[in-house]
From TrEMBL:
The lineage of its organism: Bacteria, Pseudomonadati, Pseudomonadota, Gammaproteobacteria, Lysobacterales. This is Partial Elastase inhibitor AFLEI Flags. Residues 1-21 are annotated as: Disordered. Residues 1-15 have a biased composition (Low complexity). It comes from the Bacteria. It holds the Pfam family Inhibitor_I78. It comes from Xanthomonas perforans. Gene3D superfamilies: Trypsin Inhibitor V, subunit A.
Length: 81
């Protein structure tokens, strides 16, 4: 019986919640459809409570690490959010 317990897989760890102080992208949904400018990027960063902004263009390679203080803005080929 001890061998059966030792062979049982460990339960999967629960995913970690975003750290306190993470940006809140829901605060900038009103910017969807606007052309991305420096002023719009700065407004989005401030409104979301983010420390930085990463602009993601179509087909762009990105790293997958989580940074709760960074706002990702996805734009299309015409630079529209």
């Amino acid at each position: 019986q001890a061998a059966e317990q030792a062979a049982a897989p460990a339960p999967a760890a629960a995913p970690e919640a975003p750290p306190i102080g993470s940006c809140d992208a829901t605060q900038v949904q009103s910017l969807v459809g606007q052309a991305l400018t420096d002023a719009v990027s700065d407004q989005a960063r401030t409104d979301a409570g983010a420390k930085s902004v990463r602009v993601l263009k179509p087909g762009q390679m990105t790293t997958m690490e989580f940074n709760g203080e960074r706002l990702n803005l996805e734009v299309d080929a015409k630079n529209v959010i």
